[in-house]
Amino acid sequence: MIFITLMILNTYFFLMINLVQRILLAKTNVFRPFYLTQAVLPGIRSRRSGTIASISRIAVNTPTYSLYTASKFSLEGFSEVLSKEISEFGISTLIIEPGAFRTNFLYAIKASEKGIPEAYRGTTADQVFNRFKAVAGKQIGDPVKAAERMRGTGRATEGQDLRLVLGKDVHARITAKIEQQQRDMEAAREVTFSTDL
């Protein structure tokens, strides 16, 4: 199994990162996976087997993470379409969506060196940052078990699934997002079906 996994080890308050950090974010989460996939694809295509895996994140839809979320949506969209393009060669694509695992990840979260701008104090951005600091070291997920599942241990549907959701917390968030999308579609049903010739 070939894993193409890219994670940001130090994350930032994305409302406040500078231009260089934004470019690094795009390179890490968007362009490097594209180039790496392009580089390994001929070899695994000739073997007609393998898995190209990418890491998404629980932070999707978290306020203050709009740039990070955009980069992850890009990677997920790429992976979804890639799965349709390479499945006939016996290659599967896997989007790994981990929840909160007890690693050092949250300890690395920091605001910009200037701190939170006055305009954002007491806002959702401030609350999210403080919540992350409060849960660091208290996450319920076991990183060893997550790594085992990523490598395939305990996955009964290997090669048949596009997404591997790891953790009760992220399962609940994804379920809530799907339910919200269904409510949005239902609320707009009349308008949606009113556009035919």
Key terms:
197 residues, alpha/beta, Rossmann fold, 4-stranded parallel β-sheet, 4 strands, 48% helix, globular, disordered N terminus
Description:
Keywords: Membrane, NADP, Oxidoreductase, Transmembrane, Transmembrane helix. The protein is an alpha/beta fold. The chain has a single domain (2-167), classed as NAD(P)-binding Rossmann-like Domain (Rossmann fold, 3-Layer(aba) Sandwich), CATH 3.40.50.720. The chain contains 6 helices and 4 strands, in the order βαβαβααβαα. The chain has helices at 19-47, 66-86, 124-135, 143-151, 168-187, 189-192; strands at residues 2-3, 50-55, 91-98, 163-166. A 4-stranded parallel sheet has the order 1-2-3-4. Helix 1 runs parallel beside helix 2 (66-86). The longest helix is centred in the first third of the chain and has 29 residues, at 19-47. The protein is globular. The protein starts with a strand and ends in a 5-residue tail after the last helix. The model is unreliable at 1-15 (pLDDT under 50).
